[in-house]
Amino acid sequence: MKNNNKGENTICTHEGEVVDKQFGGSVSPIFVSTSYEYINKDISRYPRYFNTPNQEALCKKISALECSESAMIFGSGMAAISTTLLAFLSSGDHILLQKDIYGGTRNLVEAQFKRYNIDYTFTDDIDLKFFKSAIKKNTKVIYIETPSNPLLKIVDIEKIAQFAKSKNITTIIDNTFATPIIQKPILFGVDVVLHSATKYFGGHSDISAGAVAGSQAHIDKIWNLAKNLGGNLSDYSVWLLERSMKTLSIRVKAQQKNAKRLAKYLSESPFVKKVYYPGLKNHPNHNLAKKQMKGFGAMISFEFIDKIDPSLFLTSLNLIKPSMSLAGVESTMLSPAETSHYLLTEKERLSQGITNELIRFSVGIENKKDIIMDIEHAIKLSIK
Ligand code: PLP
């Protein structure tokens, strides 16, 4: 594990930067070559080998934030997730996944893994006992996501990682919702950390990227498959992602501060039936969230009372964008049933508690009063 004593804002701003020796510019230059000299060099650089100067620079920043030995950047979160899973699983293996995970990951497993003779199970719920009872002799990977998308369930990272270790099983976590600013799973014993860097890492809704962090041995294993599959990110986007990550810490902290206040506001609204936010004392895993997170993140989900039409509400918003994806500096809302989880059947969605009325709220950095005014205005227009 890498132990870097620098503060997080300093890591975000500077760690790994490519020094411009030629002109002394204060930001990393972009190296866009797809062809590098190899004679008398101890490394063969190539974008699909994930080792261009900008890729390496950004990986150092991600490693320092996740306290990992190494990291890799991909062209999307799903490229990072699919490559990582296939790197750790072979024909005849079994993977145990938490029930509540991003719909795209669930769909990858359900739609593709049978073709590779990889067996899988989704846990019945998130407590350790459900993981313990569902492992098999051939379980090679336990996969978790916390806080989960979209119901913000909190899984006990340390307990799961310890249990997996005792059984020689690799643990993989999707840390997209928390970010390393709020949660560092490697410090709880997790082996591999994944991100949709399209989300908070990018933070401005203009980059598609993925990231993975772990020990050098684990990253080498992923790299061995990644260089065959491709899935690397263009250096232009790598550079933009490095630029974006300079503000990761201050963005995420501002967003979660807003989210804490908005969760309270929503939970007190007479038009709201239920609020899912780990920062609320009535959240079933509030104490666990307090233990393993630094804050509670900037995602909230909620359901209106029957008197409000949720579709009309979404289209009546002015400031908050009803749009796909999440984690930009701008506030957005969506219906998970119509977007992130639409690839699941209605039965599967309902079994995960994802109703057609559920709204997922990605809280941005705007002023709280403006966000509230927008919500109140849209509620007025959507009373049935
Ligand atoms: N993980 C989580 C938690 C997500 O929300 C998403 C996308 O929404 C992904 C992974 C997939 O990332 P991408 O869309 O960058 O492939």
Explained architecture:
The structure is a single chain. α7 (179-182) links the parallel β5 and β6 (192-196). A seven-stranded mixed beta sheet has the order 1-7-6-5-4-2-3, sandwiched between helices. Strands 8-9-12-11-10 form a five-stranded mixed beta sheet, with helices on one face. The protein has helices at residues 8-14, 53-66, 77-88, 103-112, 128-134, 157-166, 179-182, 216-229, 235-245, 248-268, 286-292, 310-316, 346-351, 368-381, and strands spanning 70-74, 94-97, 119-122, 139-145, 170-174, 192-196, 210-214, 272-276, 299-304, 321-322, 332-334, 359-362. The model has no long low-confidence stretch (mean pLDDT 95). The chain has 384 residues and is an alpha/beta fold. The protein has two domains: 8-245, 3-Layer(aba) Sandwich (Aspartate Aminotransferase, domain 2), CATH 3.40.640; 249-381, Aspartate Aminotransferase, domain 1.
Classified in CATH, the superfamily of the largest domain is Type I PLP-dependent aspartate aminotransferase-like (Major domain)
Runs with pLDDT <50, length 5+?
A: none
Helix content: 25-40%
Small molecules bound in the structure, each named once: pyridoxal-5'-phosphate
Number of folding domains?
2
Nearest-integer average pLDDT = 95
